[in-house]
């Protein structure tokens, strides 16, 4: 803990234990994080077609390189 904490050690331990119980769900409650959101392929490709970010520019460069050597594949 921080040297500037004004709580006594026993109180800090009680707070830490309560947070730990909440995080680990010891009291029977569980946190519902929902479902994983899937992004449609067309939206992803649209994002990659933009020139506004570095990732899409790198994707385009890689596509051009792969089109340059269409028959080459990596073998392990």
From TrEMBL:
Coiled-coil intervals, chain numbering: none
Gene Ontology cellular-component terms for this entry are:
actin cytoskeleton; Z disc
Where, by residue number, does the polypeptide cross the bilayer?
none
Q: Where is this region: Disordered?
A: 56-76
Tell me, what is one Gene Ontology molecular-function annotation carried by this entry?
FATZ binding
Task: Note the InterPro entries from the entry.
Answer: MYOZ (IPR008438)
**The entry's keywords:** Phosphoprotein
Which is one Pfam family of this protein? Calsarcin
Where is the sequence biased in composition, kind Basic and acidic residues?
64-76
Instruction: Supply the PANTHER family for this chain.
Output: MYOZENIN, MYOZENIN-2
Q: Which family does it belong to?
A: Belongs to the myozenin family.
Q: What is this protein called?
A: Myozenin-2
Record organism: Salmo salar (Atlantic salmon)
